[in-house]
Amino acid sequence: MTFPELRMRRLRRTPRIRNLIRETVLSPKDLIYPMFIKGEINNPEPIPAMPGQFRLPLNEVVKEAKKLTSLGIPGLILFGIPVAKDETGSSAYDKEGVVQQAVRAIKEQLENELLVMTDVCLCQYTSHGHCGVVKRDEILNDRTLQILKRVAVSHAEAGAEVVAPSGMIDGQVQAIREALDGAGFTNVAIMAYSAKHASHFYGPFREAVHSAPSFGHRRGYQMDYANPDEALREVELDIKEGADMVMVKPALAYLDLVYRVKTKYRLPTAAYSVSGEYSMIKAAAEKGWMDEKAIVLEVLTAIKRAGADMILTYFAREVARWLMEDE
Ligand code: PBG
Question: Quick check: is 240 catalytic?
Answer without folding.
Answer: no
